[in-house]
Design the sequence.
């Protein structure tokens, strides 16, 4: 139970749906109050009613509160009721809904102080890699800029290292810092979520009901991991051998499985594109197989990589060297095979497989370990906005990263509908393009910078060696170093495992723009 709890602060934590058996664990963990934010009967007959949970909680000496929140989100009345409850309930509190998301947003709205409409030179939506980096770069260029960064999370993650965590090569604690600690000096942190755009009025609407006015807007909230699109997955993540390096709390479980499995079946999955770091699904497999090989148990393992696409990697030059590792690890490849359902307790996964004639059939496969990469999409607030493209991603000119219909709005990072790889390395180049072009726009000058689609995927094919894939739009190779990019190198491992994490915290997030040459107009 403990690994499924997300701590918001010292007094409040959230979790997905709980059962009566979880209440003993919550009491043992020291929680004083349990709050149910999931309406009864929302999930069907398998969902316990709140009355039964309340009776069991009270028998254990726990306070229990029922404050149901619709899937459409909390109303103003819900928020006011939450504020009143927080003032009187004993703490710490554990609130739950289906996934914990509604509980988290309700708490955020109830604890965010009301603000009058504020005006900023630049409003940045998102405080992840893109939002912090572009804010720092803008302030390096003009320290007088009034910049607000809208970001609900109190924690900031270096996600590229989670693959290494899952391979036993990195400490997960070194991938997280407080958002307050990485916020650029001179930027104002607005701890809230975006609710809607109003580009005609040049304001954004926030989750607490307030508005922020801007002269220029930068949109970079990242993307959403759609775990719920795979039936049964959310109920079994982190147990029964089901894991994912795409979550901070699950990457250590990947390593736990890898180092303990012997003579077992390990399935790795990759969903339809686009996803963040398209090489990460297979990198998890390579590091696991390398460990099993070094332990002398690889021959007893049954390893299979199920990918929704038709090719192992989208840039052809990197396929042959990757296939050598696939063959060396004796891994099977299952193309056009998409994970659609998981039964953790029975260790069975179902895949929809498309044959050469386009016929789709469903296949069940048993496993001891299942590494899942979930489908990915733009956040709902982006998909339903007038600023989205036909695929639901944020519409942006692929060269200038400016919105085609609203010249005062730019975007960068994973939310962009541009055809580049969604990686932190892409953000590193995009930051310069957006910062330079936005400053030029403010001066009434032509936009000077062009983004070439650069992205980098350090393919960790074994512990100690990496194939450094760097490419731009159309798969054009864009290597930083004058070396054959298709060769696995120990120097590239040092870059991935040591230099880049250091540079991320000490350079990129502080506005230092090394190796970021971009073309001029």
Sequence:
């Amino acid at each position: 139970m403990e690994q499924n709890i997300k701590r918001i602060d010292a007094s409040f934590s959230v979790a997905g749906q709980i059962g009566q058996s979880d209440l003993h664990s919550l009491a043992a963990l020291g929680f004083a109050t349990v709050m149910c934010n999931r309406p009864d009967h929302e999930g069907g007959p398998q969902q316990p009613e709140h009355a039964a949970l309340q009776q069991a909680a009270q028998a254990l000496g726990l306070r229990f509160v029922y404050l149901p929140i619709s899937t459409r989100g909390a109303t103003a009345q819900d928020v006011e009721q939450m504020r009143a409850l927080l003032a009187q309930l004993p703490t710490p509190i554990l609130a739950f809904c289906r996934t914990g998301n509604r509980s988290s947003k309700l708490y955020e709205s109830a604890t965010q102080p009301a603000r009058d409409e504020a005006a900023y030179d630049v409003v940045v939506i998102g405080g992840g890699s893109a939002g912090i980096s572009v804010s720092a770069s803008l302030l390096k260029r003009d320290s007088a800029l009034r910049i607000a960064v809208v970001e609900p999370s109190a924690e900031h993650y270096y996600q590229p290292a989670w693959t290494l965590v899952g391979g036993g090569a990195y400490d997960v604690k070194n991938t997280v810092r407080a958002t307050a600690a990485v916020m650029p000096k001179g930027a104002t942190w607005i701890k809230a979520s975006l609710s809607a755009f109003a580009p005609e009025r040049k304001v954004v609407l926030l989750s607490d009901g307030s508005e922020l006015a801007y002269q220029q807007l930068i949109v970079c909230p990242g993307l959403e991991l759609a775990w719920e699109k795979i039936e049964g997955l959310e109920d079994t993540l982190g147990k029964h051998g089901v894991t994912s390096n795409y979550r901070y709390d699950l990457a250590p479980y990947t390593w736990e499985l890898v180092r303990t499995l012997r003579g077992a079946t390990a399935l790795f999955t990759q969903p339809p594109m686009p996803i963040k770091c398209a090489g990460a699904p297979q990198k998890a497999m390579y590091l696991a197989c390398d460990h099993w090989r070094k332990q002398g148990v690889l021959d007893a393992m049954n390893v299979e990589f199920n990918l929704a696409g038709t090719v192992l990697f989208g840039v052809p030059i990197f396929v042959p060297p990757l296939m050598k590792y696939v063959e060396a690890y004796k891994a099977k490849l299952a193309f056009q095979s998409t994970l659609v359902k998981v039964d953790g307790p029975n260790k069975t996964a179902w895949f929809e497989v498309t044959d050469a004639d386009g016929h789709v059939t469903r296949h069940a496969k048993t496993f001891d370990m299942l590494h899942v990469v979930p489908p990915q999409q733009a956040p709902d607030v982006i998909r339903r906005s007038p600023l989205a493209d036909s695929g639901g991603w944020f519409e942006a000119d692929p060269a200038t990263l400016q919105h085609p219909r609203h010249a005062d709005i730019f975007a960068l990072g994973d939310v962009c509908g541009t055809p580049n790889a969604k990686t932190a390395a892409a953000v590193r180049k995009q930051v310069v393009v957006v910062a330079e072009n936005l400053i030029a726009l403010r001066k009434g000058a032509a936009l000077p910078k062009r983004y070439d689609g650069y992205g980098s995927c350090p393919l960790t094919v074994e512990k100690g060696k990496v194939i450094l894939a760097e490419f731009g739009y159309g798969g054009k190779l864009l290597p930083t170093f004058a070396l054959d990019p298709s060769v696995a190198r120990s120097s590239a491992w040092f870059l991935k495992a040591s230099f880049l994490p250091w540079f991320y915290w000490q350079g990129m997030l502080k506005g230092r723009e090394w190796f970021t040459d971009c073309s001029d107009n």
Notes: The two ends are 55 Å apart (CA to CA). The chain has three domains: 2-111, 118-223+378-451, 228-374.
